[in-house]
Amino acid sequence: MADQTSHASQEGATRIIIASAALNAVLATVQAAAGYSAHSSGLMADALHAITDIGVDLILLAACWFAGLGNRVGTGAGRSARWRRYAGFVQNAAPPVVGVVLVIAGIEIALYAQDRPPLAGSATTVALSIAAFSAVSRGLLYRALSLKARRSHSPAHSSVLSAAAWHVGADALSSLVATVGIATASLGYTGLDAIAAALIGLVIAYSGVRLVVPPVAGVLRRLSKAIAPGVAAKKSG
């Protein structure tokens, strides 16, 4: 029964991450075309963000699959224990790996920001509509991922889905920033579009830092506990 529940949890996690990758592929294509036509730095930055997200989704998909592999291989106690250790490693490693990718991508996107006034007319209207759709769709995906992570019966899958939810939440916020930047730029405040692009990069980098810091802090705490007895022995000696 537990194996069936874990398998169902993995299938649900896999489906929703695949949906995220498909959404990012569509958005990256459409946003890049619309951003280029409208000369919108904000939308182009968001398109680059979507491209990096596809890579992140692939990392999460592999982590989710590997975390559930132990339930499908071997029946021996030793072999099962070994795969559980591998699953635990994936559970701990996937979020910081995703975080590092997001930090690098965020910095690159922030540096990419250029002050290029959007074109007037239909190109800007289309770009604004796409940015708004991106913000809404990613917001809905964030809610779905967060709910799935809370309901997951597998700690490894829950960890992977939480990491996915964090980066999709950053996606939704970056799309919202791009929407505001395009809207204000179309009213004549052209510099705000470049600022929006820079803010998108910073939002992405911050979400990455949030994923990296907790596991790194945990490793440092364990190292501190491991070396503390030796340090105390040297001082007493």
TrEMBL record:
Keyword set, alphabetical order: Membrane, Transmembrane, Transmembrane helix, Transport
The UniProt record lists the keyword Transferase: no
InterPro entries: Cation_efflux_TM, Cation_efflux_TMD_sf, CDF_Transporter
Top-rank taxon, per record: Bacteria
Membrane topology: Multi-pass membrane protein
Name this polypeptide is given: Cation transporter
Residue span(s) of domain Cation efflux protein transmembrane: 17-213
Organism whose genome encodes this protein: Paraburkholderia edwinii
Cited SUPFAM superfamilies: Cation efflux protein transmembrane domain-like (SSF161111)
